[in-house]
């Protein structure tokens, strides 16, 4: 996988290199900052199910198209959140301005679409739908900002669109370009969706339970921004004195004292455990998807990956 990751990095940088050095610098800024490249890994691994063969050029480029969509969405997210740092470097909006960040994010999405089109009409249509799902997930989150009555279903819909849909698409693209049977492609798609749901729930749990030092930002940042994630929603729904106190503080921006107070409430009640239980159900879904795949070293690794992700908080 190390050699495949190098191929991904080279292809990512190559895909955003243009005759305009200024645009190239902006578009490659977060690529150069590094990252786990999980979405390309998903495309590569999905293509290897049942054969454990080296990654093809098509699998690499399918993963690159998904990673470019992810990066483009980060450019836009940082503008919306007015973020100043990401991955240990200045955000594009902080360094060059909001207009440049928005246009560079659009450029990354355009390059992703161009690559997807080179892989066939089905892949192109799939990626286009996924970009739409990312937008739908973000809108669903925004419409419930500071809403203490946000339904759990709204949260699940939002994180599927914002996070899980792209993992699902990366796995599906890997299966498609590898020429897998449709039943295998569908199982890979289901696996990617389940993994993505676990990934986001775990991330949201860590935002509430990890230390500021571990996170590299203040814990409870989502609550400060009015984004109430699964542990918070379950704490509110549980009723009782803790839920009443939490509901009386939330619903508006928080000061430092209030942030510490709501963190204590959420950490001290059952919302985190209930969220972890929900994530465990998605781990089970991922394992059922693996049961439908040809058994191989790749499938074994996939089966272990989702449980290992949940183990970081459970």
TrEMBL record:
Family of the protein in this entry: Belongs to the FPP/GGPP synthase family.
CDD domains: Trans_IPPS_HT (cd00685)
Named cofactor requirement(s): Mg(2+)
Keywords for the protein's UniProt record, in alphabetical order: Magnesium, Metal-binding, Transferase
PROSITE patterns, alphabetized: POLYPRENYL_SYNTHASE_2 (PS00444)
Pfam families in alphabetical order: polyprenyl_synt
Gene Ontology terms, MF aspect: metal ion binding; prenyltransferase activity
Organism, scientific name: freshwater metagenome
Name listed for the protein in its UniProt record: Unannotated protein
Biological process, per Gene Ontology: isoprenoid biosynthetic process
């Amino acid at each position: 996988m190390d050699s495949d990751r190098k191929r991904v990095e080279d292809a990512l940088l190559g895909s955003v290199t243009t005759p305009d050095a200024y645009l190239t610098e902006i578009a490659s800024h977060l690529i150069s900052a590094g990252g786990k490249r999980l979405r390309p890994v998903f495309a590569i691994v999905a293509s290897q199910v049942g054969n454990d063969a080296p990654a093809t050029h098509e699998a690499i480029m399918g993963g690159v198209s998904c990673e470019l969509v992810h990066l483009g969405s980060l450019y836009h997210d940082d503008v919306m959140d007015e973020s100043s740092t990401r991955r240990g470097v200045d955000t594009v909006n902080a360094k060059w301005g909001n207009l440049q960040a928005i246009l560079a994010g659009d450029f990354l999405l355009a390059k992703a679409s161009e690559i997807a089109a080179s892989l066939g009409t089905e892949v192109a249509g799939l990626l286009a739908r996924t970009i739409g799902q990312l937008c739908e997930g973000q809108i669903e989150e925004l419409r419930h900002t500071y809403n203490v009555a946000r339904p759990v279903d709204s949260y699940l819909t939002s994180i599927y669109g914002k996070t899980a849909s792209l993992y699902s698409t990366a796995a599906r693209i890997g299966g498609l370009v590898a020429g897998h049977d449709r039943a295998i492609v569908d199982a890979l798609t289901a696996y990617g969706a389940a993994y993505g749901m676990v990934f986001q729930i775990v991330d949201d749990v860590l935002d509430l339970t990890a230390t500021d030092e571990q996170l590299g930002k203040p814990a409870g940042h989502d609550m400060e921004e009015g984004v109430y994630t699964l542990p918070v929603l379950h704490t509110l729904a549980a009723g009782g004195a803790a839920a009443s106190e939490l509901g009386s503080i939330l619903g508006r921006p928080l000061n430092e004292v209030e942030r510490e107070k709501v963190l204590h409430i959420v950490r001290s009640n059952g919302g985190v455990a209930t969220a972890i239980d929900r994530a465990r159900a998605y781990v089970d879904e991922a394992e059922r998807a693996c049961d439908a795949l040809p058994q191989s070293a790749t499938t074994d690794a996939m089966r272990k990956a989702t449980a290992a992700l949940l183990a970081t908080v459970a």
